[in-house]
Amino acid sequence: MKGLIISSGEIKDYKLLSKVVEENDYIVCADGGVNHLLKIDKLPNIVLGDLDSIGEKELKILKNENVEIRKFPKMKDETDTELCINYLLQEGYKDIRLMGVTGTRFDHTLANIYLLKRIYDLGARGKIIDANNRIFYTSDSISLKKKEGFFISIIPISKEGIIISLEGFLYPLKKDYIEFSSTRGISNKIVEECGDIKIHRGEALVIESKD
């Protein structure tokens, strides 16, 4: 089953949001993320957070529609997004998508990207989606379909760097080493129907991006 988390960060493309909502089985809103969802006339299955980003009008809609709301204190160790991740993992979801988790607050954006590793370490797969990017974490294998106009960037996040093989790419690799802090993996392209990525050692972010 697929679970979608919608947070209160930036969402530029509401058609994309509508499409992603339809592709998922269960919708969790992190606090003010519900404002995005209500703009496309959809309701979440549950709202989690300290509720400091939801207006009275939106709260009234949720209560009238009997949407489950779980309020947490403002003083807590986790962000609202992490609370949503923990909830979906506890409910057994293995495929978790996140929207509204990037934007002008770079601290939140970076923290949310690193939450992809937490999702992976706890036995599930996560993907961040915004208007220009799809972001994954992997320490093993991933296969991506070719998409016109998209670049593929692979960024080592483990201190020891990565050993990686790429097939179906403009710049293929075979057990090549990319060190941590290197830009060697930036702006590759898939030239076959699919691009296969194999991480033999280390951990990396895989990012599909378009201008």
Automatic annotation (TrEMBL):
Domain of life: Bacteria
Domain Thiamin pyrophosphokinase thiamin-binding: 126-205
Keywords from the named record: ATP-binding, Kinase, Nucleotide-binding, Transferase
EC number(s) given by UniProt: 2.7.6.2
InterPro entries to which the protein is assigned, alphabetical: Thi_PPkinase (IPR006282), Thiamin_PyroPKinase_B1-bd (IPR007373), TPK (IPR053149), TPK_B1-bd_sf (IPR036371), TPK_catalytic (IPR007371), TPK_catalytic_sf (IPR036759)
SMART domains in the record: TPK_B1_binding
Pfam families named among the record's database cross-references: TPK_B1_binding, TPK_catalytic
GO molecular function list: ATP binding; kinase activity; thiamine binding; thiamine diphosphokinase activity
GO annotation, biological process: thiamine diphosphate biosynthetic process; thiamine metabolic process
PANTHER family according to UniProt: THIAMINE PYROPHOSPHOKINASE (PTHR41299)
Annotated protein name in UniProt: Thiamine diphosphokinase
Organism in which the protein naturally occurs: Tissierella creatinophila DSM 6911
Native organism taxonomy: Bacteria, Bacillati, Bacillota, Tissierellia, Tissierellales
Gene name as annotated: thiN
